[in-house]
Amino acid sequence: MEIENATQQRILEVATNVFYQKGLAGARMQEIADLSGINKAMLHYYYTTKEQLFDKVFQRTFFMYIGSISRLLSTASPFKEKLWNFIDEVMDMLQKYPYIPVFILHELNQNPARISELFSESQAINFEEFKREVAREVRRGNIKKVKAEQLFTDLIALTVLPFVAQPILSKVLSKNHEQYSQFLQDRKKELKTNWLENL
Amino acid sequence: MEIENATQQRILEVATNVFYQKGLAGARMQEIADLSGINKAMLHYYYTTKEQLFDKVFQRTFFMYIGSISRLLSTASPFKEKLWNFIDEVMDMLQKYPYIPVFILHELNQNPARISELFSESQAINFEEFKREVAREVRRGNIKKVKAEQLFTDLIALTVLPFVAQPILSKVLSKNHEQYSQFLQDRKKELKTNWLENL
DNA sequence: GTCTATAAAGGGATAGAC
DNA sequence: GTCTATCCCTTTATAGAC
Q1: Contact B149, B156 (CB under 8 A)
Q2: What count of CB pairs under 8 Å joins A to B?
Q3: Residue B112 CA, distance from chain mean position
């Protein structure tokens, strides 16, 4: 990890937002420079190429996002308490950064090779451990019989999709921005009580 | 609806695939021309601008996708039978066109205004009717007490997300392409039995 | 309808002065 | 470190012959 000065940090922050919304292909170095309060030459001084800047943004995002999911699933807390916590934390994070999932998925579609590199570098999600945990909970009768991979997919789907699909869902459900935020809050509670308790 | 000749249809088909994978900003008219077996001039002869071609692709996709969801929800069948059918049909469609949801969501992030135009033009999803139906089923004791908007979100989430998140999920679950297809098949059954029956 | 050639604009990247 | 000016490649779009 190299040291970053204030300008570098501002660039990275701006670039993150621009890439989140426009993607690698749609982002413009000119816009990133403008929003950072510098000119293009300066931008290239800190990050030689667009690809290089993008890679940095993508990696940081991936590790933050996947990393926090990973951490939340590998705590030592009791199983249902862990899921309770997961719902809260993940939905809070996504309320701050709702563009992240579509950003990651769109870019992975362009360049599927990227994920392999990142997964090998990172301490990826330890699914085997989660699997054992689910099997144990089923054995003990704490939750109904279910395959770990289906439960995991349910968990991600129920928490992440409302953010991913916000543009369409808010339209279908006829909710403005504030109403949709309220809906997401309600949903958090709903998942923790109804879904989690009925496992 | 104007009549389209064979060349026009081929262009549209090719453009659809290219835009699905690369998005508006990432797609190249040259590539679309090449894959269509014509040159750029010819391409512009049929579709004057890239935007115009993209709009056509986006609209068709949106209507096909949202339209089929809409149709599946407004049939006259009994409620649970309808959801059963929905799971089958939507997941079959997505197995054919897995790029569609990320494509739509990515492009809506770029240009959120687009959705307003399309929703007003289309006979959008009739959520009020679905709401009444859910309330009725709850009253009759056929399903547990639940808000229609939460149930609808669950339904979309559980069926759509496994396709949207395939690049990451297949990695986390350590599944190759065939294994992931099998997983999706299992999931269809899983949702129809476990989830649907426990509503 | 179909092509070649080219215009016109956009946008990433660098040279070089300060 | 920071700027202006500019290079040059890419890509959209059109002109014009056949």
Answers
A1: no
A2: 135
A3: 17
Cβ–Cβ contacts within 10 Å for residue A165, how many? 23
Q: Which of residues 114-153 of A touch B (CB under 8 A)?
A: 115-116, 119, 124-125, 127, 144, 146-147, 149-150, 152-153
B66 vs B119: CA distance, rounded Å: 10
- Taking residue B136's Cβ as centre, other Cβ atoms within 10 Å add up to 12
Contacts of B84 (CB under 8 A, 6+ apart): B192, B196
CA of B44 to C1' of D15 (A): 13
Q: What's the pLDDT tens digit per position in B4-57?
A: 789 999 999 999 999 999 999 999 999 999 999 999 999 999 999 999 999 999
Global model pTM greater than 0.90: yes
Task: For residue A100, give every residue at least 6 positions away whose Cβ sits within 8 Å of its Cβ, in sequence order, or none.
Answer: A20, A61, A65, A94
User: Tell me: the pLDDT tens digits for B113-132?
Assistant: 899 888 877 767 889 999 99
Of the partner residues A26, A162, A173, the one whose CB lies closest to the CB of residue B110: A26
Half-sphere exposure of A167 (CA within 13 A, CB side): 24
Measured between beta carbons, which residues in chain A are less than 8 angstroms from residue B164? 105, 161, 164
Residues of B in contact with A146 (CB under 8 A): 194
Residue-wise pLDDT tens digits, B160-170: 999 999 999 99
In chain B, whose CA is at the least distance from the CA of A28? B25
Please give the mean pLDDT across all residues of chain B: 95
